[in-house]
What we know:
Elements: E1 6-11, E2 16-23, E3 26-34, H1 46-68, E4 77-83, H2 87-104, E5 108-112, H3 113-119, E6 137-142, E7 147-152, E8 158-163, H4 169-179, H5 186-194, H6 217-233, H7 237-268, E9 272-276, H8 283-296, E10 299-301, H9 313-324
Helix pairs in contact: 1-2, 3-9, 4-5, 4-6, 4-7, 5-7, 6-7, 7-8
The structure holds 5'-O-[(R)-(carboxyoxy)(hydroxy)phosphoryl]adenosine.
5'-O-[(R)-(carboxyoxy)(hydroxy)phosphoryl]adenosine binds at residues 14, 143-145, 170, 173-174, 185-188, 191, 277-279, 281-282, 309-310.
Amino acid sequence: MKDNIYILGIESSCDDTSAAVIRDGVLLSNVTASQAVHEAYGGVVPELASRAHQQNIVPVVDHALKQAGVEREQLSAIAFTRGPGLMGSLHVGVSFAKGLAASLGIPMVDVNHLQGHVLAHFIKEEASDREQPSFPFLCLLVSGGNSQIVLVKSYKEMEVIGQTIDDAAGECIDKCSKVMGLGYPGGPIIDRLARQGNPKAYQFSRPQIKGYDYSFSGLKTSFLYSLREWLKEDEDFIEHHKEDLAASLEYTVVDILMKKLRQASKDLKIKQVAVAGGVSANSGLRQAFQDHARRYGWKVYIPKFSFTTDNAAMIAITGYFKFLDKDFCPMELPAYSRVTV
Ligand code: KG4
């Protein structure tokens, strides 16, 4: 009888410390410690993030192993996020993975965080789960740091066919929320307010960029300048209109994202379309995917909420595929802060 393959996944690229265990591609546990410490600063403070990872990494990994009912000695390999991300945060996960792998005498598998987000669509919670895209498919990867259209040809072959030339969609939403004094992270706050507002109440400028690339810095500036003008007329403008402002902002961001994705789907004749990354938690964007499925005959793949933001389950599943290919990484490989898929 063949031995089971157990992979421990570790994610520490930004402000979530996460560990997950999968057996033969099926998720047994996925434990995440988020860092509330950044809320007071309105954004992630790298120095504080790495300190919090130091505090969280041992209990989070212990918890994930316990929840999975797996002993360290059963592990076949350790998969870890090598980049991109915050260097200090990555160092904690990478060093921990190296130490544990060395002590257990098992291989390590390095994972590109962005590739992990895309492959989150292959996480199985039951061995019988079949709702997975087949290749090739398009994936809209939208997070706090990235907005990309990825052509996914196989588990390992991914081509970024479009990406933001400045701010990411999540960054734009977070910054507009900050300007309105709504708190951090802005994404979930804007999402909640937008549900009660009119998406057509206000109009903001839209980028005119060729091809499949995105730009969100113009929208952010247009939002800021419009708000300044409105505040001159009514100093309580934000309080009076925050729902409409949130709904109009969300509507514009979603519209910009979907327009390029529609074009890519049409040009490449690919109707299997997935969405991934933190912003894929957004209700307006999820609804737009459902609408496109009805209107354009797309087969859409929308991740469960727990697999949208940073999590180790997506690192473990990517590590599992690489493990099957015997694609291991040497001990001396360092973390990296920047790269695309
Ligand atoms: O993928 P992610 O967890 O982290 C990285 O950037 O790697 O994405 C975080 C982003 C933040 O910009 C956050 O505001 C956004 O995802 N986000 C949302 C929602 N939930 C999280 N944006 C819009 N609507 C949401 N419901």
